[in-house]
Amino acid sequence: METEFKLFDPKISTMDELPDKPGNYFIVLRVNCQLPSIGITPIYHKWNYENVKYDIIYTGISNQSLRVRDYKQHFTGNNAGRSTLRKSLGSMMGFFKIPRDKNNPTNGKTKFSMQDEEILSAWMKDNLLLFYKPCNSKDEIERNEKEFIHDYNPPLNLQGNENGENREFREKIKMLRR
User: Fold this and answer.
1) Each residue of 23-34: pLDDT tens digit?
2) How far apart are CA 99 and CA 137, in angstroms?
3) Residue 123: phi, psi to the nearest 5?
4) Cα radius of gyration (the chain)
5) What is the pLDDT of residues 74-114, one digit of tens each?
6) Would you call 159 helix, strand, or coil by DSSP?
7) What phi, psi does 118 have (nearest 5°)?
8) Cα–Cα dist 44/71, whole Å
9) Most exposed among 5, 20, 49, 90, judged by the fewest C-beta atoms under 10 Å?
10) Cα 123 from Cα 29, distance rounded (Å)
11) Confidence (pTM)
């Protein structure tokens, strides 16, 4: 299955290399990189690409555009309110959430400060890689995501992840995000 996915390296690839199509994706740690420490070490499942094994940390879907979802919402700043991945990573790094909407600060929508968002974006580009696969069917995309969460148990997938492995880690992430 790994051969169906293509690599996107946010340090050297450009946004236009990602398809403007729906699909599935995995976020993995670069070799010799680690998630920010929260006092609990997660158990990783591996993603094998060209005989290199990467630690899977997250899987997700884009129902409209991998380019928009993966690059603009995950890898660029000021988007913790739109990216659960960014919200989890920033919370692990000790960043504090602030209201995203100045006109309605109590609506629950949050982000990190511009400085923290920039630090987070740089950390993500230095430590993470993306593997993606365009898909045509919304049913296929959603079915794939459920299978990937079940089979790979990515530690940063909080929703829909009922696997007992990494449960304590996920609970700590939820607490940090509050």
Assistant:
1) 999 999 999 999
2) 35
3) -60, -45
4) 16
5) 777 665 567 889 999 999 999 998 887 778 777 777 888 99
6) coil
7) -65, -40
8) 24
9) 20
10) 11
11) 0.91
